[in-house]
Amino acid sequence: MLERFKVPDKDKIFISETEIYELTKRVLMASGVSEKGADNTASVLIGNDMRGVESHGISNGLRLYLNRYDSGENNPTPNIKIVKESPTTAKIDGDGALGTETGPIAMEMAIEKAKKYGMGSVSVFNTGHLAGCGYYPLQAVNEDMIGHCFTGSPAKQTLPTWGSEPILGTNPVAWAAPADEMPPFLFDIATSQVAGNKIELTRRTGAKLLPSWIADEDGEPIMEEIETPDKGQYHLLPFGGTRENGSHKGFGLGFVGEMMTNILSGAGPAIFNDHQGSDFFVAYSIDAFTDVGKFKTDMDALLRRIIESKPATGYERVVYAGYLENEEYVKRSKDGIPYHIEVVEWFEDYCKKNKIDCDLR
Amino acid sequence: MLDRFKVPDEDKIYVPVDKITEVTQNILKASGVSEEGAKNSTSVLIGNDLRGVETHGVSNGLRLYVENYASGNYNSKPNIKIVRESATTANIDGDGGLGAEIGPIAMEMAIEKAEKYGMGAVVVSNTGHLAGCGYYPLQAVEKDMIGQAMTSGGAGLTVPTWGSEPILGTNPVAWAAPTKEMPPFLFDIATTQIASNKIGLARRTGAKLLPGWITDKNGDPILDEVEAPERHGRHGESNYHLLPFGGTRENGSHKGFGLGMVVEIMTNELSGMGPAPLLKHEGSDFFAAYSIDAFTDTNKFKEDMDELLKRIVESKPASGYERVVYAGFLESEEYLKRSEEGIPYHKEVIEWFENHCNEIGIDCELR
Prior knowledge:
The structure holds two protein chains of two kinds. By secondary structure, chain A is of the alpha+beta class. Chain A has helices spanning 17-30, 35-50, 58-71, 99-117, 135-141, 196-205, 247-263, 292-307, 323-335, 341-353, and strands at residues 12-15, 81-85, 89-97, 119-127, 145-151, 173-177, 185-189, 214-215, 235-236, 279-285, 337-340. In chain A, 39% of the residues lie in helices and 16% in strands. In chain A, strand 3 (89-97), helix 4 (99-117) and strand 4 form a beta-alpha-beta unit. The two termini of chain A are 26 Å apart. In chain B, the strands form four sheets. A seven-stranded mixed sheet of chain B has the order 2-3-4-12-5-6-7, sandwiched between helices. Chain B is α+β, with helices and mostly antiparallel strands. Chain B has a single domain, classed as Ribosomal Protein S8, Chain: A, domain 1 (2-Layer Sandwich).
């Protein structure tokens, strides 16, 4: 993440991974979620926090999910069903569960299929927020496979290239692949210029938005640095920003996301249907294509070549997707995760109200 | 394509599709390529020209291939072998054949696997230029499937985000999906700000390059509009390098660089060829087909696609624009127009055809 999204030093409170994981699980279970479901969701959110992807960790996510359980928008006790299956594919009805509860299950199924048949993919519909795509491909990496994930996020956020009406969501996509000694490759992006969650994060950190990150209500790209506008007073741009700078690439990839999730699952385009979205998970067995040992050694050589290359003027080093996240992971495993004081206060208030044991400081 | 890349009106010569197809096939066969191989490569190149993707048609491609066959860089009679196979996957050794010759065969295999098992993916190593990725996913679309293709387009061209040394190629990627009445969705991009073929095209058409499209020799982004620089080498020999799409980190170039890495991994590493930036080989390809029927009702999928694509095309444009389109829409318009009127080639291209045919003694009646 860019510096501007990070928690300012004076507002940081460090909490250990285990502590925040246990508490998050307790909080979810107090809302009626099963132990397994709470484990899945807590693992995804805290996995994101550990990698420094705090836009998709508990800070924004948990309170949102609890509200959605309260309002009935998400189902804390879903009956998750496989509604269609082939040797390599499956489709799961999530019964209104959080995406973070069904996601790890779906990726696990894709991995099992890939072990048997070379590849596997699983489509999930009728679920809530997935908390980004990064966590799931790493499940495949742990099994020496390549993992891939799309999610169709809520529609009517992002403009098409040349357009003024928001149609697609931020539609994130991720791939991950294992290496031998180097940190794994993990590429995890929103197909908009800025993830919707990052805009929320700027409200907390006070960061400004850069030129051509968003458009005004009429769809005109805002070409100066600005304070984050109120919700409903801006639209997202596809990545690239303007056509001259290649926004058709961001819009096209966002459309691929919509197609591989909402349309392929049969849920239908999110813009016409009042559903929360669908997800798509793929696992590729490396062994089905080539020697796994060679693949990982080749990955190391490639990734090292990048890390050891000469930076452009003004930069200290060159990195690849997943490298800084891994550094953060190692650091946070030791130091704990730095949460914004506002987030810790939220936990304390919530636990007090709901009589949940909570000792974070 | 942006207008700046199109052939200026005064330089256009319209050639009917069957004529250019026949001559292209004959030129390839004269280079020693088999009937079937020439047919494949020609379909790919002319398919690109028909969709208006002339960066990846005969204009830039054919002379390059003829040179590469003549120099022995490409094998005109490849002995294509499957070196590893599973229910859903295969790894093909292309034996130095042209990517455009082997690509259609590999995608066909992926489609057959997807018909049986729900998904199929085929990697191809040891091949030459694929002529972009757009043609191949459309093979899957014809079978009511979703198609995907990636190719590691020549390493040593593109700098990483924050980097100054060109490491990756332009690494294109494409997806396509069928519809009912609307033109199919076909998303086909380079993971650089600009395909390097477009720089060749810009030199021919005299177009300038926009700010943030390329870097100077030292890897610093050029932030002015510039003439397309001359002659491009790889692995740092060039006087300019390409930027990943996004351009700068603030504008998201890590997204372009990351997607370029995905392509490098899914082609060179997954095929076992090894990293192109280190080994300086021609590259490898990845093709995948997803059976829609394995997930949902194909007819509903196609209707849903129509509905969403219509919503996009009918949406209100931003000020200054006439309409909103989706990937594949303009290409489909161009396809219909060019099928009827012929393909507008730059006269320089026609002259190359005429000279080359003359040299090798084959018929060539294009005007």
